[in-house]
Write a structure and sequence with these properties.
The chain has 266 residues and is of the alpha/beta class. The protein has a single domain, classed as 3-Layer(aba) Sandwich (Rossmann fold), CATH 3.40.50. Strands 1-2-4-3-5-6-7-8 form an eight-stranded mixed beta sheet, sandwiched between helices. It starts with a strand and ends with a helix.
């Protein structure tokens, strides 16, 4: 793991592989480890950058107001620091909102765009989540056991958890190894809920793939449909069965859809 001073804070990152650059942007309470398997696979053909965002993982967690625009600017600044040319960008969940903002604010940095299990935000978004969202993304103090279980049960389908009982212990272990900073999480969640790119989406001109799971209990799949309809020429892939972490529930189909798209837009 390496560290870089970006916009006055330290960000932890990893750069691996060789080839065209590919930047992966994680979700709200995740960090770069959520891409471990997918990043390793993609690094066989791409120079893959993963990093912990401001307020996440091993990066600095300043107590201040966050915005999706700020996190997009952090991403652009990290790319500048690493002297990366225009890159393929993959963003999932909250990372997908950051990826949208990166493409809008820094279009010269984005060669192609993959938006996973995310939303345009604003009044046109489909609001779901309810108890699952409240439990999984609570900003109150929770034990690793409580938080790991709540996130697993919200992010995966019941069928997948039944077939993979190791998922819940793994999520609990992840929270034990990298405890969440609840103050930073609160700033990040507020930024996410304020995100609204709906009216600006037609300004995204790079090739775009929108992909999600039909059974997502956190961000309804219809939000991805909206993104695909609003972004000119976007391709839409709906995976079923799959919950929020579609790339883990449907690894082969997810990799195939993403790699086919990247190769088509080399």
């Amino acid at each position: 793991m390496q560290r870089a001073n970006i916009s006055g804070i330290e960000l932890a990152y990893e750069l691996r592989g060789a080839g065209a650059p590919l930047v992966m942007i994680h979700g709200a309470q995740g960090d770069q480890t959520m891409f471990t398997g997918l990043a390793a696979n993609l690094s066989n053909h791409y120079r893959v950058l993963t990093f912990d965002q401001r307020g996440s993982g091993l990066s600095d967690k300043p107590d201040m107001e966050y915005s999706i625009a700020l996190l997009a600017d952090d991403t652009a600044a990290l790319m500048d620091h690493l002297e990366l040319p225009p890159a393929h960008v993959i963003g999932v969940s909250m990372g997908g909102t950051i990826a949208q903002e990166l493409a809008l604010r820094h279009p010269h940095k984005v060669h192609s765009l993959v938006l996973g299990c995310t939303t345009a935000g604003g009044s046109q978004s489909i609001r779901i989540g309810g108890g699952a969202l409240a439990a999984a993304y609570s900003t109150r103090s929770m034990s690793p056991e409580e938080r790991g279980r709540a996130l697993a049960e919200a992010a995966f389908t019941k069928g997948y958890i039944a077939q993979h009982p190791e998922i819940i212990p793994a999520m609990i272990a992840a929270r034990q190894q990298r405890p969440l900073d609840t103050v930073a999480l609160q700033h990040r969640m507020k930024a996410t809920f304020k995100h609204d790119a709906y009216d600006r989406l037609p300004q995204i001109r790079c090739p775009t793939l929108v992909i999600t799971g039909k059974d997502d209990a956190l961000i309804s799949w219809e939000n991805s449909q909206i993104l695909a309809q609003r972004i000119p020429g976007a391709r839409f892939v709906l995976l079923e069965p799959a919950g929020h972490c579609f790339w883990l529930e449907q690894p082969e189909r997810s990799r195939a859809a993403i790699t086919d798209f990247l190769q088509a837009n080399a």
